[in-house]
């Protein structure tokens, strides 16, 4: 499909979209927290909480190497714990920002301080937490609590939000967890480096969400080096490691033979993905709306970017942080699927409709699904791309849909900066 036809196909009714967003954006989280508090009072048995945990844990980073380590349990015991765990299924189910916040505030984070060195720790609170993390289904756990839970909502641009927190005195398994054989294999091999174990699990069909939880629990890596990994760090580590593995699989592949433009939007984020022939190169450019939670004092869009060439990166991305590795993963998974390599520019417009951070998972799923069946696009465009005559043609056409000029984009983007300017750009 020609690029101009592709772009014309999803031009939106801005007025209708604003009305729809106004109806959806109720900000009723405060009321929901009150409901959670009431449900917790009804569920507590004295100073203990009994029920199934979500197959997910949380490890903080403050005070490292002594961190806050927690088990996540649904407050309402009649609900399916797996519905609360971060996964790509949230995108498939069409969850919005408020849906995610409500699910996460429905999880009690029963936590206590722990040392990160956990090589042989499989008893006590931390041992129970690790058993929960390596299981492939929810586990019944009894948790002793000390004091009144704190019902503040904690949000993060990388980690999924967490809800009420309470200090745990102990945690005891009420059943034996079921641990998949590939996970047992990684635990049994004390000489297996964490990077190799991560890619092994991914090859065995574990999504990055599962691998992240297992890594965070200190269940991967050489025995003497196994440590709890703060959730924020483990998310990026898995995206980066799996991304490097996928890149290795296409290093010698043929390149695509045309310039393609893919599009998706999710939770107030708009993604333009330009693939063009050539050896692997990747860049993410983010444009954050003024007077939004991401750019509250700005009068113009705030631009951030990060880039890598064929050889990859040798340093951590600062400006775009976890979004870089998450979006790169989504692109690489697509290229591996078609057994091709390409130069890739991802343009992420963060509008003020993205009114609360829900974690970097939504970036990963937004990019992943641009190549599948994006929500909100006409059926004639789903799973399709626009074909441009060249990388320059693609950038020029897409820029007309962006809130920044081609000149501003050229100043920030290494890939766009390489295009020769013409008078029409100014």
From TrEMBL:
Pfam families: Nre_C, Nre_N. Transmembrane segments: none annotated. Residues 21-295 form the Archaeal Nre N-terminal domain. Involved in DNA damage repair. One of its GO terms (biological process) is DNA repair. The keyword tRNA processing does not apply. InterPro entries: Nre, Nre_C, Nre_DNA_repair, Nre_N. This is DNA repair protein. Keywords: DNA damage, DNA repair. It comes from the Archaea. Belongs to the Nre family. Residues 308-426 form the Archaeal Nre C-terminal domain.
């Amino acid at each position: 499909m020609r690029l101009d036809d592709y772009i014309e196909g999803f031009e939106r009714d801005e007025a209708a979209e604003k009305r729809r967003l106004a109806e959806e954006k109720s900000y009723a989280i405060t009321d929901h927290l009150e409901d959670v508090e009431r449900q917790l009072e009804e569920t507590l048995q004295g100073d203990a909480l009994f029920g199934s945990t979500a197959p997910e844990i949380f490890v903080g980073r403050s005070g490292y190497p002594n961190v806050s380590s927690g088990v996540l349990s649904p407050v309402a015991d009649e609900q399916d714990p797996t519905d609360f765990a971060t996964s790509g299924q949230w995108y498939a189910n069409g969850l919005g920002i408020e849906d995610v916040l409500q699910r996460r505030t429905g999880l009690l984070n029963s936590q206590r301080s722990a040392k990160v060195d956990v090589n042989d720790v499989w008893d006590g609170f931390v041992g129970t937490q690790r058993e929960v993390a390596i299981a492939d289904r929810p586990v019944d756990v009894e948790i002793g609590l000390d004091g009144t839970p704190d019902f503040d909502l904690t949000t993060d641009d990388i980690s999924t939000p967490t809800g009420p927190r309470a200090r745990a005195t102990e945690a005891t398994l009420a059943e034996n967890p079921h641990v998949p054989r590939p996970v047992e294999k990684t635990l049994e091999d004390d000489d297996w480096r964490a990077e190799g174990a991560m890619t092994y699990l991914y090859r065995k069909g574990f999504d990055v969400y599962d691998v992240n939880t297992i890594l965070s629990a200190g269940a991967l890596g050489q025995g003497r080096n196994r440590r709890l990994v703060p959730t924020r760090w483990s998310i990026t580590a898995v995206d980066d490691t799996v991304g490097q593995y996928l890149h290795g699989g296409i290093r010698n592949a043929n390149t695509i033979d045309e310039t393609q433009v893919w599009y998706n939007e999710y939770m107030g984020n708009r993604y333009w993905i330009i693939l063009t022939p050539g050896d692997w190169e990747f860049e993410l450019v983010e444009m954050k709306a003024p007077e939004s939670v991401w750019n509250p004092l700005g009068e113009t869009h705030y631009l951030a970017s990060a880039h890598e060439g064929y050889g990859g990166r040798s340093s951590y991305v600062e400006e775009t942080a976890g979004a870089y590795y998450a979006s790169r993963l989504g692109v690489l998974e697509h290229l591996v699927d078609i057994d091709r390599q390409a130069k890739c520019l991802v343009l992420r417009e963060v509008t003020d409709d993205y009114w609360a951070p829900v974690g970097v998972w939504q970036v990963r799923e937004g990019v992943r699904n641009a190549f599948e069946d994006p929500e909100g696009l006409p059926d004639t465009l789903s799973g399709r791309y626009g074909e441009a005559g060249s990388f320059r043609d693609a950038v020029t056409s897409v820029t007309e849909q962006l809130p920044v000029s081609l000149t501003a984009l050229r100043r920030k983007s290494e890939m766009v900066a390489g295009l020769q300017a013409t008078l029409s750009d100014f």
